[in-house]
Amino acid sequence: MPWAVGGLRLGRAWVAAPDPAALRARWAALTDAEGAERERLFRPTRSRTPAAGAAALPGQRAGSTARFADTPGPCPEPVRVLREPFDEQWLLPDQRLIDTARPELWRVRDEHQLFAVEVPDLLVTAHLPAGRLGRIRPLHRRPGGAEPNLAPGLLPLLGERYGGWVTPEDVLCWILAAGRPGPRGYEVPLAADPGHWRAGLELGHRLLTVQLRGARGGEAPRLPGGRRPYVRSALPGWPREAAYDPETETLSLGSGTVSPVPPPAWEYEVQGVRVLEAWFAARCAHRDPEADGLEALGPAEWPQHWTSELLALVTTLALLAELAPERARFSPGRPLGAAELRAAGVLPAPRWARRPASVLDHQEEGPGGQFALL
Length: 374
Fold this sequence. Notes:
Elements: E1 16-17, H1 20-32, H2 35-42, E2 79-84, E3 87-91, H3 103-107, E4 115-118, E5 122-125, E6 128-129, E7 136-138, H4 154-162, H5 168-178, E8 180-182, E9 185-187, H6 194-212, E10 230-233, E11 242-245, E12 250-253, E13 256-259, H7 263-267, E14 269-270, E15 273-274, H8 275-284, H9 304-329, H10 338-343
Parallel strand pairs: 2-6
Antiparallel strand pairs: 1-3, 2-3, 4-5, 4-7, 8-9, 10-13, 11-12, 12-13, 14-15
């Protein structure tokens, strides 16, 4: 996947939140403020200030390119993003508020797109990654899944080698099964043997299904044997802390309880951080006594949809933990050699494949309402 993009840099934490209603409240508070108070709430950086204009984000409403200080406009509709590993939140899609929004990613963001993120192991999401994550590799270079972000010549080579049609999503599934972080970056051996390829493909499709969590119209994964986590006792208006009892497999949020939560789901970590603890902390951040400005605006009571998201997340982490030993044992067998990849024109990937494609079939509004020249 030659084309990779650095992560979005928001520049101000208040533009993203676990609750879309909180973002609308923050926008209202910001636009109602004036002068020095608006400047303080905005949290200017060298890249973005209320007095600076910016181009409209591709795919978002036009008219959001005037200087924020002059014409904020109506609140943009929040969009779903991956804020942290396995933590889906919401973002205000207005480039005037985001230091580095990566418009090239917004241009190819649609219902066909998947994003692979190195964290340093690989995560795959159907939502735009917009947090402190690693490099982002879109599966497709153009909207509509029209062109895969794969080294030219790779799909024909694999189809000939394995005796069948190979899709871009197949390659992504193989990467999930066989790829590993290495000293030179994320390393992906390609199997020389069709049997190893089919085994990796089967494992990778299961990993992808779990990671996507029912996105793109798929069925949400479930734990086998009817071990579905559910709320045993109702959550309070606002749980103050999260605690876990491995013996009863119970996750307590204040006086509320959720079970069964398998120990591997509770212990699941990314970069040394427990995912469930980080997920809960992100939803309590606005209630921190040190929270200031717009970041302190959030729901007064625990929203019901957060509980539903929590149950889905527990299932996802438990299933990934179950698949982890199988993935660790998986071997791609003898890999295809670099000489064969070079002979097929797969290596090295051409320079153009490492850059975003020209995807414009329409004009995009630049700062101040001018059309962008791209």
